[in-house]
Amino acid sequence: MATSLRLYAALTATAAPLLRQHLGRRVAKGKEVAARLPEREGIDNTPRPPGRLLWLHAASVGETVSILPVLRALPASLSVLLTTGTVTSAELLDQRLPELGHRAKIIHRFIPLDVPGWVARFLDHWRPDAAALVESELWPNMILAAHQRHIRLILLNARISPRSAANWARLPGAAAELLGSFDLIQAQSGQDAKRLRSLGARAVETPGNLKFAAPKLPVDEAEWDRLAASIGHRPVWLAASTHPGEEEIAAAAHAILEQRFPTLLTIIAPRHPHRGAEIAAALAPTPLTRRAEGQGPTGKIWLADTLGELGLLYRLAPVVFIGGSLVPRGGQNPLEAARLGCVVAAGPGMANQASAVAALRSAGAFTEVADAASLAAWVADMLADPARRAALAVAGQTAASAYDGLPQQIADRLAQAVGL
Description:
- It is built from 18 helices and 14 strands.
- 44% of the residues lie in helices and 15% in strands.
- The protein has a seven-stranded parallel beta sheet, sandwiched between helices.
- It is globular and about 65 Å long.
- By secondary structure, it is an alpha/beta fold.
């Protein structure tokens, strides 16, 4: 084992008491579920299901959404242990797993922190036949322990930024040992594949970006009817998945736009809905209503501070700004909106969504904005020209549907990996 990996294992083992305290503090902030804290230490009394078991790990909401089509395509006879690392992803699964119907053999657990003893306890209990980690979840203790137990390892939809690749290049032995533990790596793009190979990865494929193949986000049709009737003929646009600082930019854009569109409705859907009260205070005294408080889209700005409703919001608003892009967050997924016929724009900070942006740009279906003024100008152009907006929406939908068969291809590879 590389010296740096041995040192990491020793440090994480020593840090276990501090990490346990850290988990307790996260409970107080609503970032952990108190009753499920034992899972974060690999403690579980739930029996392992009989037969073949596939372990799938998706860190947070974006990765979780991306693998839902794969779960749907897996054989119904296969048991799946699905782990995530955030409360919001667990809440999302509570909403979305019932849609899978036949996939009754899915067990959700929180991933244990990367402490050697906790990882060993987790793997010894569940004994998966194969493990598929999504995107960039390179936890050294977990990967090496699984490899030592001869668990087939797959890295799905793998991505690695130039910055991360440069950091790993400073530890070439550790990088080669970790990436070499994977039996198969499916990279999001050719650039990701090149960077991964340079660090020692083997068996790297580039089937496409799984996020390009996500199904349309779901919607409650009755709720859509009710809200659409409430909005009526008002012009409407949406600032989706916003991060701190972007709500103020959206409000400033609204102030510019309402000079031309006096009845304009601006919808703001924060990436983290628990920030609703904080956002409302920051935007005061702008007239604002909050969905989390049961209020409808009756004011100038409607704060959609609820979880899992982007499918509803994208269907209500044909013009969408994608958040996490005017602040240094790397951007959120623009394809979810494009798939539902929205025209999309974002700021320059879309590094985490480079492939999606490239696909939409090549179709002429993506606009970059820099500030409140350019955002307002773009929204005004889209609202004022329905024919152009419709043409861009069709182009975006076409680009977003290019990989519709990918989930089934991946599901077939995973079933093969567990021996089905």
